[in-house]
Amino acid sequence: MGASLDLAALRARTPPDIQPVDAPVNLAATRQDGLGCHSGKETMRQAAAAAGLGETLESLKRDYPVGPHDQPQSMCPAFGSLRVGLRMRRTATILSGSACCVYGLTFTSHFYGARRTVGYVPFNSETLVTGKLFEDIRDAVHATADPALHDAVVVINLCVPTASGVPLRLLPREIDGVRIIGIDVPGFGVPTHAEAKDVLAGAMLKVARAEAEQGPVAAPRQGRDGRPTVALLGEMFPADPVQIGALLAPLGLGAGPVVPTREWRELYAALDCAAVAAIHPFYTASLREFEAAGRPAIGSAPVGHDGTAAWLDAVGDTCGVARASVEAAKNRFLPAIRGALDANPIRGRITLTGYEGSELLVARLLVESGAEVPYVGTACPRTPHSEADRDWLQARGCHVQFRASLEQDLAAVEEVRPDLAIGTTPVVQKAKERAIPALYFTNLISARPLMGVAGAGSLAQVVNGAMAQRERFDAMRSFFAGIGTGHAAGIWEEVPQKRAAPRRPAPEKPIGETV
């Protein structure tokens, strides 16, 4: 299996070139910027609590605890909530925050394929302090809430409005039948964008559950076939719900909607399930709503041979399926999964890091494919529904780091020196600088099927192809040795001095020329 990961070294050793920078707060900028980005997280937390949002922050802290360090390094968390709203039909999204933040979020959302207008309520120091900003938000909501166009309007407070106590809870619950969902998603309260998806999904489920408790609600667009369903929690590759549905069919069950949903009426269908599968186990707010609706949760996912077997057993036990039906389903699918794994082996040592929430599932699939995976880092937290995956991986020599920092992920690459590093952009960059093949997790790994038979052999081609590039990396590193370092770093230590232009030599006289 090769050298194992030295956990003591991982905890104690961080390479000198990746030490975190603990920059002091720019106090002058703080005085000019009010409660802007320069004022620091603790100052903004205190300001939000003083402005009446203390309970909101405490709720976020309970749902999304950080860990040994302050916060994983990733994109603005609010992107997760923005993404959820933009992917839903008949849903409008309005942002309230600093202009620079709104620009970055809308740029990123359109980069990832959003084709929807994002509303923005600008503010200045005066409107923020006097409460006019809230009035502007309320006016924008009234102008947007057109029942002919929208089922819901989502308003997202970013850092500065949350720190200033802008009370979205005072917005009307609905306008002309259009639901108004106001949420706070500050960077100093929600650790990752993956968990911010849960902030909005949970808020919507809460409203949908209250509506379903009051009387009849809209049926799913595609109708229902009468079978009990298992709702699926967490964004996943489009083919995965289809694969899960195939696994559930022999049990007399169907795959329910995927939460976050694509339209409002799917929320009712998701809540009307026999059980919910916590494919992404950190959706705490959403799981709370399913629990309030009396729906039990199932952890892990049907990945690989062992994962599929354990998941089918859990579904059968939770949903009261006859043991004979569960065993028949296992006998039908497990040999095919084992055959796909054996036909697509992965041989090599791999480190895996990411912030999507499916890192442990991918690691399980890699291990069952034959890879050695000594380290898995995820920006997401440890929860009761992730324990089965954690225990399975640790039993096979894998160190699982929840709330992993960039420094821990990079130190693991340095310590293990893997044949392939799968991770976030800075991890991939650092690995390639070390001539280690690397793959970006979000675009190249999580954008592939993972579940059932289709997922069993889905990673081998891209992973083996990347590991086969080791010699090319060595050749490139040798060819470009020294570029970008030392005197070739492109950094001027002193002001360049202007030098006189060189004198040109006098032209030679042509042969035969006389003076």
Tell me what the structure shows.
This protein has 515 residues and is α/β, with parallel strands linked by helices. It has three domains: 40-190, Nitrogenase molybdenum iron protein domain (Rossmann fold); 229-339, Rossmann fold, CATH 3.40.50.1980; 344-479, Rossmann fold. It contains 22 helices and 14 strands. Strand 1, helix 5 and strand 2 form a beta-alpha-beta unit. The longest helix has 23 residues, at 41-63. The chain is flat, with a radius of gyration of 27 Å. Mean pLDDT is 87; it is low at 13-34.
Total of domains: 3
Number of helices: 22
Which overall shape is indicated by the principal axes computed on the Cα atoms? flat
What are the segments in which pLDDT stays under 50 over at least 5 consecutive residues?
13-34
The percentage of residues in β strands lies in: 5-15%
The CATH class of the largest domain, by name, is Alpha Beta
What's the architecture of the largest domain in CATH terms? Answer: 3-Layer(aba) Sandwich
Beginning-to-end CA distance, first to last residue: 85 Å
Q: Over all CA atoms, what is the radius of gyration?
A: 27 Å
> What structural category do the secondary elements indicate?
alpha/beta
**What's the rounded overall pLDDT mean?**
87
Largest sheet: 5 strands, mixed
Pathway: Porphyrin-containing compound metabolism; bacteriochlorophyll biosynthesis
GO biological process, one term: bacteriochlorophyll biosynthetic process
Protein name: Chlorophyllide a reductase subunit Y
Domain Nitrogenase/oxidoreductase component: 76-466
